[in-house]
């Protein structure tokens, strides 16, 4: 009879570990989803700002059609992207196109002095900072989640419960640009 109680006790402990592991992984997964939603909100704000920026630049640099078209294509691609990997890649292309668009202001002093352009560029800069902060939060949540599904005892149950590894919101090809030391010329 005491062997039965011991087996029952071990089963209860294993079930409690499974419940605890499952609940922790659900919480971590929800945190990743919430962090991605935060990024998505910031990206939608950036997507909404882009047409105004393009229209402002178009008034001063109409013959820079290729750059303007690249920004619009990149924006449309970013808006239709699904999943963190696709969104990350599309947003990296959009960031590059926006960088080229903002760089046009250097060639057009009237554009650079335009109050509307200055305000839009300032809003874009603020959004870029918010997106960077949201990416850091998302990547931290993904790191905690991925660690959680690999640690014991959750590793025993994670696959069985359908928890799989999640991808980071990576900088992709632009990582070398971000890590490069800026050059200052006078």
Summarize the structure in words.
The protein is mainly alpha-helical. The protein has one domain (3-163): Up-down Bundle (de novo design (two linked rop proteins)), CATH 1.20.1440. Helix content is 81%, strand content 0%. It has helices spanning 2-60, 65-80, 83-107, 109-113, 115-150, 154-158, 175-179. Helix 1 packs parallel to helix 3 (83-107). The longest helix has 59 residues, at 2-60. The radius of gyration is 24 Å and the shape is rod-shaped. Mean pLDDT is 84; it is low at 177-186. This is LemA family protein. One of its GO terms (cellular component) is membrane. Keywords: Membrane, Transmembrane, Transmembrane helix. Its main location: membrane. It is found in: Membrane.
Q: Which structural traits does this protein have?
A:
single chain; 186 residues; mainly alpha; de novo design (two linked rop proteins); 7 helices; rod-shaped; disordered C terminus; MamQ_LemA
The name of the CATH topology is de novo design (two linked rop proteins)
Secondary structure tally: strands = 0
- Gyration radius, rounded: 24 Å
CATH level 1 name: Mainly Alpha
Portion in helices: over 70%
Q: In this structure, how is the largest beta sheet organized?
A: none
Membrane topology: Single-pass membrane protein
Protein name: LemA family protein
Keywords: Membrane, Transmembrane, Transmembrane helix
InterPro entries: LemA-like_dom_sf, MamQ_LemA
């Amino acid at each position: 009879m005491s062997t039965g109680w011991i087996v029952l006790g071990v089963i209860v402990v294993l079930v409690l570990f499974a419940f605890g592991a499952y609940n922790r992984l659900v919480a971590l997964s929800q945190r990743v989803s919430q962090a991605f939603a935060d990024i998505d909100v910031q990206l939608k704000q950036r997507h909404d700002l882009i047409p105004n920026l393009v229209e402002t630049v178009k008034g001063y640099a109409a013959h820079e059609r290729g750059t303007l078209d690249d920004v619009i294509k990149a924006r449309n691609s970013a808006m239709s992207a699904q999943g963190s990997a696709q969104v990350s890649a599309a947003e990296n292309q959009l960031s590059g196109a926006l960088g080229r668009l903002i760089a046009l202001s250097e060639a057009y002093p009237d554009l650079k002095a335009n109050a509307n352009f200055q305000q839009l560029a300032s809003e874009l800069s603020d959004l870029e900072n918010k997106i960077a902060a949201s990416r850091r939060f998302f990547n931290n949540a993904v790191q905690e989640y991925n660690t959680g599904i690999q640690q014991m005892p959750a590793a025993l149950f994670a696959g069985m419960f359908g928890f799989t590894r999640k991808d980071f919101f990576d900088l992709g090809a632009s990582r070398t640009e971000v890590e490069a030391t800026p050059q200052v010329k006078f």
